[in-house]
Amino acid sequence: MSGDSILLDYGSGGMASQRLIQECFFRHFENPILARMDDAARLEMRSPLAMSTDSYTVTPLFFPGGSIGTLAVHGTVNDVAMLGARPRYMSCAFIIEEGLPMDTLERVVADMGQCAREAGILIVTGDTKVVPKGACDKLFITTTGIGELIIPDGPSGHKAHPGDAILISGSMGDHGLTIMAQREELTFDTAIRSDSAPLNHMIEALMCKLTSVHVLRDPTRGGLATTLNEIAHQSDVVIEIEEEHIPVHDAVKNTCSFLGLDPLYLANEGKCLCIVPEQEAEAALHIMRATPQGHEAVRIGTVLAAEGKTKAGQVILKTPIGGKRLLGMLEGDQLPRIC
After folding, report:
1. 8 A C-beta contact, residue 291 and residue 205
2. pTM as predicted
């Protein structure tokens, strides 16, 4: 189908739809469950489940380090994994603008197929709709992921306890700044790439080798600062982090300074926060650093109880000169449509 453009006929359910499904989606998503072509996928699972759903509308569709296809798989896999689950299956629904080049769609679908294989997840069901030109911006993808909990009572945003160590698996802000640079056609002395990556294998190692993991979260939209605020409110605790310990690549730090952006509020697509008991901190860092996705892992702070002037739900940033300031949630949006 190379060289064609998407026509309204491709969403009709007729012969054109069947050609699109067989020659594009099935070719890249091939697996026995999908090949049955039933109205629903029959899944074999024997433990409590984790389930997540998301939609992806990024502009541009392709960028250094990934595409809307890699985001769709990695984002789904990571959301399921953050509950301490082993991602198994996912669905994907496409809303395609009439006139989208077939080569563009195939590149996205190929990216998704490759990412799914790397993550060990099967794309087992889906849907395709074609809308008239101008009714959407090129391509929207909606996914749902399902996974099996590795342990019955896994991590959750409400399980942070005073005394816990706060770890981050790597540098902040790469994805958000990459998208902005591509959209605004900015060039930098040092290349900036999205960190889009599957975290499920690293998470499974943490879950299987540590005695306890209290919280796992991926700081996507709203970045690190917003995610920490969410956890502080869920757990009714105070979170204190050290600014100088938060990893930010020099290119991101310098560009954010020039543009007036804060990397702590920029989106990430291949990093996770891990909150563990103090006695598990070093072991957790060792596990994370042994993986490609966690080789930059560091400790950035501690969970505290509210006392004195501090209130539960606050996030406190300690500056390199010894000062402290409150780190609030994102107000508005620094960068629209980053995932």
Report:
1. yes
2. 0.94
Using N-to-C axis directions, what is the helix angle for 68-81 and 200-209, rounded to 10°?
10
- CB–CB of 304/164 below 8 Å? no
Q: Which of 179, 150, 166, 29 is nearest to 83 (CA)?
A: 150
pLDDT of residue 332: 65
Query: Phi and psi dihedrals of 81, rounded to 5?
Result: -65, -30
**Amino acid (one-letter) located at 202:** M
**How far apart are the C-alpha atoms of 320 and 244, rounded to whole Å?**
6
Convert the pLDDT of each residue in 15-59 to its tens digit: 888 889 999 999 999 999 999 989 999 998 888 999 999 999 999
What is the rounded average pLDDT of the residues 118-132?
Answer: 96
- Residue 90 tokens read as 């996912």
Residues 6+ apart with CB under 8 A from 129: 11, 93, 94, 95, 96
* Confidence band, pLDDT 50/70/90 cuts, at residue 329: confident
User: How far apart (Å, rounded) are the C-alpha atoms in residues 327 and 290?
Assistant: 31
- 262, two tokens: 């804060």
Amino acid at 143: T
What is the average pLDDT value for the chain, to the nearest integer?
93
**Going from the N-terminus, what domains does the chain have, and what CATH number goes with each?**
8-149 (3.30.1330.10), 165-326 (3.90.650.10)
Radius of gyration of the chain (CA): 21
Q: What confidence tens digit (pLDDT) does each residue in 263-275 have?
A: 999 999 999 999 9
